[in-house]
Design a protein that fits this description.
The chain has 153 residues and is of the alpha+beta class. It has helices spanning 41-51, 56-66, 130-152; strands at residues 2-3, 13-18, 26-30, 33-37, 75-78, 83-87, 97-99, 104-110, 113-118, 123-126. The protein has one domain. It contains three helices and ten strands. This is Competence protein ComK.
Length: 153
Amino acid sequence: MEFLSNYKISTSTMALVEEYHQDYNSIIYDKNGIYCTKQTVRSLLDEACIERISTYDGRIKAVRKRFPYRKKTPLVICLQKRICAFPITSPDNYGCKWIFPYHIHTSIMKGGKLIAFFKNGAQLALTCSSYVFNRQCERTANCLNYFQNNLLD
């Protein structure tokens, strides 16, 4: 795992994992490798939104205004590049994992745990049921499609 002092979320970001470690705060699953950084997951997400002229809170508020997704609200980061993510648990829970669904190949239950398999062959154990995972994927797709369609009007 390579340490990065400044990571920017892009179309190659697959997942973000909050981690308590003396040397880093986040583990980043990227198409090009697995990285760690002192940046927090929330700061990574907020900075990605700011780069696209918004904020994490603004994007979450917009989704909640249009959809009844009050908990585990999906985050649409960039409509043009279809960058979006969803939390597996409440983002307020320490250790929350954020998944960027574009990169998901499949998921399976194995030994009582859900494992997400990414298109590049990487895998990540998740602490949710298949139902929650699939629902989060669906909610995220709904948000992305809704805002993309309204952007074209």
